[in-house]
Amino acid sequence: METLTSSQNPKIKRILSLRKKRERDQTNLFLIEGYRELLSAVDNGFSIKSLFVCPEFFLKTNEKALVDKIQKKTCDIYKLPEYLFEKISYRDRPDGLLAIAKQESLSLEKIKDLCKEGVYFVVAESIEKPGNLGTILRSSDAAGAAFLVVCDPCTDIFNPNVVRASVGTLFTVPVVVCDKNEFFSFCKKEKITICAATPAAKKIFTQTDLSGKIALCMGTEQYGLSDQFLQKADLLVKIPMMGKADSLNVASATTLMLYETLRQRQG
Amino acid sequence: METLTSSQNPKIKRILSLRKKRERDQTNLFLIEGYRELLSAVDNGFSIKSLFVCPEFFLKTNEKALVDKIQKKTCDIYKLPEYLFEKISYRDRPDGLLAIAKQESLSLEKIKDLCKEGVYFVVAESIEKPGNLGTILRSSDAAGAAFLVVCDPCTDIFNPNVVRASVGTLFTVPVVVCDKNEFFSFCKKEKITICAATPAAKKIFTQTDLSGKIALCMGTEQYGLSDQFLQKADLLVKIPMMGKADSLNVASATTLMLYETLRQRQG
Q: Is there a single domain that holds both residue B113 and residue B230?
């Protein structure tokens, strides 16, 4: 295990550069920080290229076993002193593990087999905030959604804040990134109901039949779904707004749609 | 309207110091940034002490009317150039409005009258992240909860990130900060059912009767509710976890509890 001590080391600079979207796009690499996140990535077959550790920060969960597991897969491992690890860390309280990994995402073609009877999943159109996208992944995992479709993204799914907010579910939930027209054709072919959540709807989500194959479509934080989505939708539903502010966080609204779909399947 | 140009001006330093909890506690003041947030604060009777504006950043919503309204209430108004406003702003894209306001919060005694038949509300125990507390306020407003109880807080409700994530609902939802024992006595006296959300519960939240006067208790991000809450609870419910990660964001989980309570009241 090589030790790095200088912030001028090209490997350190490489890590910092991967905080930028452009660099992630060009290299097809991204950053994973934290024990829980890294364990999830490894267990779900993501390829780790380099691992940076600072044992002084370990929380003594089971770091050694994880590091050994990663080392077996011919990945470079570097040891860093605390001051240098703090520099590369994205967190207030780093836990001493940060990796560079290869991006993986799927095409609609590849998730066709997951579209069985009763399949449900979220479609996130142009979500802006990485934290919201991460939380949507977390809720998709928890509610048992088959996958997540991200249409015309404003934030890439490998943004460090998506990884963080998803607490590892970026690696457990299959993610497809595509444009909306591809998605509409896919739904037609696979006979999937396009359900749009919009304040303009007449039907309340808990009083609407959400059975069958269903895509739960959610729009941007500020403007909601685009007109194209609203026009293509087979079903429009709204979440009741009983307060003064008439607004829910988009990840909260998505969680409601997911768990209502689950409730209707489980009783 | 006085113009400020120096970052060394004591008024500018005052603003920056109010980002710190200690200063907020000592002065009983806090910061409100943004048109939407400030409008909500003014409309709901919060007292604005000083207002700082940068007209170059105005989004031309209706800033002039709002500034006039605030000015009538004998508040000091200062004009800042862009470079200086960017320094005091908490946002990536400031909209030219930032105020210092007086903190207001309620006691359990004062919300007694809101505890009518069928009342429902969230109790947030020791939530750590300001963003989660803000999102819980937003969902409480949307789902029509009567108020929010914050027990033994780790983050104060006047943290700038709570204000931001609440998008103005900090001013529409009555908030009580108290310790848990006060809260337990209050529930006993007011005959309120204490419902605790915990993965250890046997009953699923959507299959449990949540009618009557009910307190929906949610615990910390990492450890959930304390043992004292679990022991005092009249009702334990869980949210089904169908995924690999077994975890939901606390604000998402709170939103589910709130809307299930509403669904059971509305059908």
A: yes
**Residues B240 and A262: beta-carbon distance below 8 Å:** yes
Q: Which two tokens stand for residue B253?
A: 């989980």
Q: How many whole angstroms separate alpha carbon A180 and alpha carbon A188?
A: 13
Which residues 80-139 on chain B approach chain A with CB closer than 8 angstroms? 131, 135, 138-139
Task: Please tell me whether residues A119 and A218 are part of one structural domain.
Answer: yes
- Which residue, B55, B85, B102, sits at the end of a domain? B102
Axis crossing angle, helix A250-266 with helix B130-142, rounded to the nearest 10: 60
Q: Which residue of A has its CA nearest to B40?
A: A245
> B55 at the A interface (CB within 8 A)?
no
Q: What is the extent of the structural domain holding B130?
A: 108-266
Within 8 A by CB and 6+ apart from B55, the residues are B63, B79, B96
| Residues of B whose CB is below 8 A from A197 | none
Indicate the pTM of the whole model. Answer: 0.94
End residue of a domain, out of A102, A120, A143 = A102
Total domains in chain A come to 2
Is the ipTM reported for this complex over the cut 0.90? yes
In chain A, the residue whose alpha carbon lies closest to the alpha carbon of B264 is A206
pLDDT single digits (tens) B107-128: 999 999 999 999 999 999 999 9
Contacts of B244 in chain A (CB under 8 A): 40, 141, 169, 172
The CATH number that applies at residue B63 is: 3.30.1330.30
Could you read off the pLDDT of A239-249 as tens digits, one per residue? 999 998 878 99
Asked if A138 and B267 come within 8 Å (Cβ–Cβ), the reply is no
